[in-house]
Amino acid sequence: MKILIINAGSSSVKYQFMDSDSGEVFAKGLCERIGIDGKLTHRVPGKPNYEADIPMPTHNEAIIAVLDIMVSPEYGVIKSVDEIDAVGHRVLHGGAEFTESCIIDDACIAAIERCIPFGPLHNPANLMGIRACRQVMPDKKQVAVFDTAFHMTMPPKAYIYAIPYEYYEKDGVRRYGFHGTSHRYIAGRTLKLLGRENNPEGTKIISCHLGNGSSLAAIKDGKVVDTSMGLGPLAGFPMGTRSGDIDPTIIEYLMGIYNMNIGEMLNILNKKSGVLGISGVSSDFRDLDAAAKDGNERAALALEKFCYEVTKYVGAYAAAMGGVDAIVMTAGIGENNGELRGRILGGLEYMGVKIDPELNAKRGDERLISAADSKVKVFVIPTNEELMIAMDTAELCK
Q1: Active-site residue flag, 147
Q2: How many domains does the chain have?
Q3: What pLDDT digit, counting tens, does each position of 69-113 carry?
Q4: 20 to 30 Å CA-CA from 345: which of 68, 257, 290, 308?
């Protein structure tokens, strides 16, 4: 099936148009500055790129602009909107309401609205994209694919927080986790590479989604048993600009010293912390690599802290599962930064992890990078969240 995939932000819409069976991407692009002045960037393999300023007062106009360029004789890939079989939407937070993807109807929208307190920045934007597509394409089936759904198999001991239980019962405070669509894709590919896609029982996989936003998932028998992000995506290990786990006392201490409110404090933890906060240089790991090689000690410390914390999480998840068969590296850093992969995995030699330096030095392709005598297989697998959304959408819209 030909699926249009929508990832709506508060002032943007990312999209891909792809075949759910082959994974072929026919077109992709970005609408940005929605509500300001509007800009569309559209790319089709084998055709010239298209960029234009287009008025986009709301997400409706953005979706109309996407459909217009898709049927353009010069830049398009279809003759009619009728060739779009269905629409798949990425939705950040499904809370405990959703354990899998679902067809979008009024009940689904109401449930996504109930999850807004858990995803106050993303869920309203995702709903804007959903409502715009329903209005512009009322006859198309639409599917919501949730970033949190794959993690809903966690047992209570992993998702409960050690705070008064009533906050879980009444307010839904628990670990939810994110990057679930990526972790699910990685788990499926890893099981296939292990020859266990039809028999996941007994398998133990640690999926490492390492990018500007990062998370790990412990996947046992093909199901998540723990993950590093929590109620929101701030938890876990240090990321590009996010602090990861910290002592909550720090929040009260700094708010008192600098007379900050909670909004200001959360802005610091979300946007000014992580490797950016430690280094003072950048949230981009390529910049940190360059600065560290030029002798910047804080940049070097930021990289060391990142690798140390990821290694620690991998060790913890191996303990939680009683061992590990495969460790998988994915996303921007996991797929492309062999040096950091080597530093992270080098701290796991006690587990029998052994890396082949030549295989680890390569970039881009799905591949095994562990040595022949490694007790744990280590893979690099480029993630493909859009394909997972397309596949879920096609399955539900048959």
Answers
A1: yes
A2: 2
A3: 999 998 999 999 999 999 999 999 999 989 999 999 999 999 999
A4: 290
